[in-house]
């Protein structure tokens, strides 16, 4: 099963300035405006390497990485180890804490059933990440994965490690506190390695990065260049699936570039959905939260109110062609198949290429985009649940894209893994 290893990390030095000014979010959620703001904070912000721009951007990232190492902005740790990473944050006034282990994990093909995905990926994103990896030979950001630890063997070790002063700690502009500890004790590291030897890992966030690492490993192996590198491993942050600090946000859908006849749409889906009007769109998420065992969506097409679409009982019996029961039971699957595809004619290829479908994390943004005329419809949904991710993964299936949004995101730049 899962094989974890120590990492001889590349990390920021005091020459770079404050660590909080040099880390960044994962590449796929950074807007152009956010990228510029990060560089304004520090010329050494990792966004320069993680999300390069301009002509020959990947080569420039590789060149800049080499310069920063030469200048002492980044330096390799003297000793190997594993890192404990903790985030403290609030959501709607409630405090949360989750704790993870940053280490190297041996790469496995998905067919080996050791590391399991839960979402589909896009070729374009994997090509981008592979070009960057070829130019830099680094994992700048880790893959976020989940494991089960019923006996709390791993959890007790990580908790003990946090009883000392962290080697790094800061609070970011979202009021999220990040803390990092390093474990170097050989006996503790061996205990952790043994504890993961019977574990499966479920990828929570970073599917494109993981598949890119697999492609990079295959490429080196084909050219007989794998030996002497750590490219048979991927840097991961491993978090207990039962950690009470895990939070998943919904990813809402907005429809653009279509002419929608509201009456026709509701007529097409009326066989499978009860339809009810509500006067206040700001109450949509609260009303949806009451639907814990029934598929329900808030459809917004402008104005003050919204339309609640609640699935009829027969929808629970549908098994979509070629897919598992776990996949067929997801809210996003029902939305995509019975409303977007059947009702609006947005097929799977259209969705994958984001021709008429876009995504947003907040319901406020979804509503605002409809009000501004940027989109014609918004569908507010409930978040995917942790057990649904596990069930889909174990069935060997994958969720539609953008089915999960783990919050908060892991910071990129706390720990960097060099592959050679």
- CATH homologous group name of the largest domain: Conserved hypothetical protein from pyrococcus furiosus pfu- 392566-001, ParB domain
Estimate percent helicity.
Answer: 25-40%
What is the strand tally?
Answer: 21
CATH class of the largest domain: Alpha Beta
Can I get a quick summary?
This protein has 420 residues and is of the alpha+beta class. Helix content is 31%, strand content 24%.
Describe what this molecule looks like in 3D:
β4 and β5 (94-106) form a beta hairpin. The protein folds into 2 domains: 4-247 and 407-418, Conserved hypothetical protein from pyrococcus furiosus pfu- 392566-001, ParB domain; 251-382, Conserved hypothetical protein from pyrococcus furiosus pfu- 392566-001, domain 2. With 420 residues, it is an alpha+beta fold. The strands form 5 sheets. Strands 1, 4, 5, 6, 8, 9, 10, 11 and 12 form a 9-stranded mixed beta sheet that branches. It has helices at residues 32-41, 47-50, 57-71, 123-136, 153-161, 186-196, 207-222, 262-269, 284-288, 325-328, 331-341, 348-352, 363-371, 386-394, and strands at 4-5, 10-12, 74-76, 82-91, 94-106, 115-116, 138-139, 143-147, 168-171, 177-183, 201-205, 233-240, 247-249, 252-255, 273-278, 296-300, 306-311, 357-360, 377-380, 405-407, 417-418. α4 crosses α7. The mean pLDDT is 95. The longest helix has 16 residues, at 207-222.
């Amino acid at each position: 099963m899962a094989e974890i290893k120590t990492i001889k990390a590349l990390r920021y030095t005091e020459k770079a300035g404050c660590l909080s000014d040099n880390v960044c979010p994962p590449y796929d959620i950074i807007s152009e405006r956010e990228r510029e703001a990060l560089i304004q904070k520090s010329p050494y912000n990792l966004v320069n390497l993680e999300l390069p721009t301009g002509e020959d951007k990947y080569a420039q990232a590789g060149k800049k990485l080499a310069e920063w190492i030469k200048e002492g902005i980044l330096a390799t740790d003297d000793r190997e180890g594993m890192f404990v990473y903790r985030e403290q944050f609030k959501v709607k006034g409630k405090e949360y804490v989750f704790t993870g282990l940053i280490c190297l994990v041996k790469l496995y093909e998905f067919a080996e059933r050791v590391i399991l995905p839960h979402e589909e990926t896009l070729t374009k994103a994997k090509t981008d990440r592979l070009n960057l990896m070829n130019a830099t030979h680094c994992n700048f950001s880790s893959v976020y994965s989940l494991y089960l630890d019923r006996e709390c063997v791993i959890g007790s070790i990580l908790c003990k490690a946090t009883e000392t002063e962290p080697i790094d700690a800061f609070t970011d502009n979202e009021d999220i506190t990040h803390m990092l500890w390093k474990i170097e004790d050989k006996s503790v590291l061996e205990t952790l390695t043994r504890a993961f030897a019977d574990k499966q890992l479920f990828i929570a966030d970073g599917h494109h990065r993981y598949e890119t690492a697999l492609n990079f490993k295959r490429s080196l192996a084909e050219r007989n260049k794998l030996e002497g590198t750590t490219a048979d491993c991927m840097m991961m942050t491993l978090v207990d699936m039962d950690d009470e600090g895990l939070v998943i946000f919904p990813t809402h859908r907005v429809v653009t570039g279509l002419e929608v006849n509201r009456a026709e749409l509701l007529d097409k889906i009326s066989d499978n959905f009860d339809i009810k009007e509500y006067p206040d769109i700001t109450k949509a998420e609260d009303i949806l939260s009451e639907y814990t065992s029934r598929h329900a969506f808030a459809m917004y097409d402008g104005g003050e109110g919204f339309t609640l679409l609640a699935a009829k009982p027969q929808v629970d019996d549908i098994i979509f062609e070629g897919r598992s029961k776990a996949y067929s039971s997801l809210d996003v699957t029902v939305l995509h198949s019975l409303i977007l595809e059947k009702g609006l004619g947005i097929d799977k290829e259209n969705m994958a290429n984001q021709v008429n479908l876009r995504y947003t994390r907040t319901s406020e943004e979804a509503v605002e985009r409809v009000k501004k005329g940027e989109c014609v419809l918004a569908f507010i949904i409930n978040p995917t649940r942790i057990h649904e991710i596990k069930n889909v993964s174990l069935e060997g299936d994958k969720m539609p894209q953008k089915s999960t949004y783990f919050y908060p995101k892991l910071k990129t730049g706390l720990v960097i893994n060099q592959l050679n």
